Amino acid sequence: MSVQELEEIPALGRLYLAAVGNAARSRLSPPSPAEELPTARHSVPQARVDLAKLTDFQRLVMHSAQDTLPSGYVHTFAFPVAMSVMAREDFPLPLLGMVHLRNEVQHLRPIHYTEPLSVTAWAENLAGHRAGTQVELVAEVRSGAELVWTGRSVYLAKGVFLPRLDRPARGAERADFTPPLPTAQWRLGADAGRNYARVSGDFNPIHLSSLSAKALGMKRSIAHGMYLASRVVAEAGPAVQEPFEWKIEFESPVFLPATVSLRISDAGSPGERGETTFTGWNQRTRRRHFHGSARPLGAAGGPAGT
């Protein structure tokens, strides 16, 4: 597998503009679709965290101000490198309108904001989905030669069916969700997507306004999955700096404005921290938006979600 080294962390805004241009050209002259993922990995060496952006991120997701990086922020830092893989001309799925399905992350040690960080990202596991085609984006973050964070994000290109991929049979119906007693409520305004875009650089049109979201098939704008994940992990993650892993699965979009009910439950014994689970839902419709967990990593580590 080849490695394409980038000079700096790409600007997400430029990647989205390029994706809009590619989409327009495709409508005029549809290209022969690629059906394989690019083999290249994209890498940025020795990148630096912007302290002002980190501070804005911590405030937005209600994370305590500290000199080490929130796990959600590390994803935000690495995500443009992963997105640059999706923006390649030989990437087989359209970048615009991708639906975020789930994340699995290992945060292997505290990361100080002054550390220069190297990011490497690639795509793998292209697969048929009953609603389209899904793909996994993997990002690794290193300080020097040490791996300090790794994340796997799964996205769905809804309505895109590649001929060579089989569509899985419809799975078992989800069990009815019975909302538990909430431990918190989040009130998200219509500007929640724009606010997160400003601190993350993720200006995906489905999050910015009802008008731009409707152009991509949504009934109105939706909250960023990583805003929801970053905020809940800031609340459910370890209170002390220790290696941990977390995972989240998104079930239904949070249409803005919204009130999200939240339940966080710690399964640890008194005095010991175990797995913390979390669930977010719409109290009025009783639809679950997301669920997941966070837990300390054992001495031997192990893949997230095992």
UniProtKB/TrEMBL annotation:
InterPro entries: Fatty_acid_synthase, HotDog_dom_sf, MaoC-like_dom. Residues 190-268 form the MaoC-like domain. Residues 285-306 are annotated as: Disordered. CDD domains: R_hydratase_like. It comes from the Bacteria. Belongs to the enoyl-CoA hydratase/isomerase family. This is MaoC-like domain-containing protein.
